[in-house]
Amino acid sequence: MMRMEKKILIIDEKPPIAINKVLTRKDLYTVYLELNKIGEESKLFGEASTLRQYIDQINLAIASLDCFKRLKPIEDSYHLPTALRDYYSILYEGDDIESIALIASIIRNGGIVKHEANTSTWQEGKIFTIERNDYGKEIKTVIFDATAIYDLEYSGSSYRILDIPPIRRYENFYINNCPEMNLSRACMNNPAKELNFDVLLCDLNIKNKKAFLLTYKNQKNAISKIIEDRYGNSSNICMGHYNNVRGKNDFVESDLMLAYGMNYLGDEFYLAKAMALEISLKNMEFTREHKARISKDDDLNRIMCSDMFCDLVQSILRTKLRRNTKDVVQFYSFIPYCEIIAMLKDYFVDCNIMDWYPDSFYKQYHDNGSRTKKPTNVKFANLLERRFSNLNSQGAMSISKMEVKDALGYTCQNTFANHLNSEYVKCKLQQLGVTVGHHNLIKINNEEMTEQ
Asked: How far, in Å, CA of 414 to CA of 417, rounded?
């Protein structure tokens, strides 16, 4: 009987295939200065001089680019000499010891460069490496990580994703999503769009809830201070920031989770990731659509959504869902990507998904920084509230569409129709018990109403 040996790698939590780390031009300069310390008397002088020349070429190439673009490989066969790497680790006293290895990767594979400003100085801009981890290339890899089937990094014949039928239902999981707000890092850092998180806390009313609040690292301290000022030190709210909660059990008692922001890692990161995965892109441009940052290339959009989805699932499963009980878990989010919502619905079998509008916070967001005289869906909703909220026997039971147009100054029928059909206004109409007729908006009460 002939025996055949097969090499199989079994993985519980999948490591990344694409290695896209950030190197700043300041890092380049730091390494350059350290290499200058290696004198002619050293056996490593020739190798250090070669690497300095490569750094000069990288810098010249970056200076000729605008915005972000592909930095082509300089020498695809270059590998950092082991002796030089070991010597550098002794010579350099800083923390970012891997910078020299990242430079070698850029020399060999190129990178994606983004300038923070139009300048050719060393200190500006950053470079994303384009490196591929081929740990499973020569062996069959079996993955038990539940999000692997959605992860485009693990496509192809080298990986076998176990297709296991759903063994768990999530009827107790409620996803409440507000798709009409952009809470990106750029928006949070925009002074003209400053938001008061305390307003959102009032909308959520989470004082007596065991809550897990996930946000950006640079927002964490300010939000913690707001929570402490409102609820004191006895708050049941636990804070975490993106890219720092995977594998943690600190939030396992939480029956409410708020994702304050979306972990979009930047255009250049996803471009670098696509190239590391050897995906051919037809278009490298980005745009904004329905509050979402999207690529003009469909394959790149799939990579972006796949990456954000897998990260989000890992965070959600830090909550009480981890215990597999029947306790209700509420998840509140600001996800503008319908593709990610669809994947969440598919992954969390039988979960409940609904649109959510934190009313005061939503109004603050749309009013802040846009003091326009033009009609908006928020002004539309405010008018409905004024007319219908405190309706009494002498109040108007309906308002014509023409009255709304005149009151808010609509000059375009399409704009009026878009606002009337926006999810926020439809939600407000439902709350107020108002139906939309052909000509009128009609308040529903206990008596049968007919359109006038």
From this structure: 5
Mapped onto helix, strand or coil, the DSSP state of residue 18 is: strand
Element (H, E) at 173: strand 173-177
Q: Residue type at 15?
A: P
pTM for this entry: 0.84
Contact 57, 74 (CB under 8 A): yes
Facing residues of 238 across strands?
A: 212
Cβ-contact 178, 357 below 8 angstroms: yes
The string of pLDDT tens digits covering residues 351-405 is 999 999 999 999 888 876 455 566 788 888 888 888 887 655 444 578 889 988 9
According to DSSP, the residues that pair with 239 across neighbouring strands are 213
Which positions ≥6 away from 136 have C-beta within 8 Å? Answer: 9, 158, 159
Provide the sign of the torsion angle of the four alpha carbons 108, 298, 422, 307, taken in this order: negative
H or E segment to which residue 259 belongs: strand 256-259
User: Is residue 225 within 8 Å of 196, Cβ to Cβ?
Assistant: no
The SS3 assignment for 141 reads strand
Q: How many CB atoms lie within 10 A of CB 319?
A: 23
